[in-house]
Design brief:
It is a single chain. The protein is mainly α. The chain is 66% helix and 4% strand. It has eight helices and two strands. Strand 1 and strand 2 form a beta hairpin. Helix 4 packs antiparallel against helix 5. The protein is elongated and about 65 Å long. The protein starts with 8 loop residues before the first helix and ends with a strand. 10% of the residues are buried.
Length: 149
């Protein structure tokens, strides 16, 4: 007779709670009292659990992006930070790094947001904050059913 699975609903809820808070999968596994290899074995064998884990990670991401967008209403650098990471090909500082690696000048190329007036930056940040907050509040499809965010 094999041993009982550690995959109890209490342990799974602890795992999901940690993921919703922003933990890595490894950190969440430790919080739930399991090894990371156990978590990955569960995910490989249980599509429903995998979907719940991915949903918890997505919940954290959406909440974090909405918080950054709200911060951008007061400071345009929050938007710049997000754009540099999400759209690095268009907004990143990779050109400066490539130039430095080639031995060229280390002066950074102008950033697309550098020429904005403070008022224009604040206006754009508010627009994006409102748009992202609306997206975060939109209904979500969970297990085939639409639920409020």
């Amino acid at each position: 007779m094999g041993r009982r699975s550690k995959a109890t609903e209490t342990r799974i809820e602890a795992l999901l709670s940690a993921l919703r808070a922003g933990s890595t999968r490894e950190g969440a596994a430790g919080h739930a009292g399991i090894d990371r290899t156990t978590l990955y074995r569960w995910l490989a064998g249980d599509a429903r659990l995998r979907a719940r884990v991915e949903q918890a990670e997505a919940d954290f991401e959406v909440r974090s992006v909405a918080q950054i967008a709200q911060a951008a209403a007061d400071d345009w650098r929050a938007s710049a930070w997000l754009l540099e990471r999400r759209r690095s090909a268009s907004y990143g500082r990779s050109q400066m790094q490539a130039a430095a690696a080639a031995g060229a000048s280390t002066v950074a190329p102008p950033h697309p947001l550098d020429d904005l007036s403070p008022a224009e930056g604040a206006r754009l940040a508010r627009e994006w904050a409102e748009r992202l907050a609306a997206e975060a509040a939109a209904p979500v499809l969970v297990d085939g059913e639409i639920t409020p965010a």
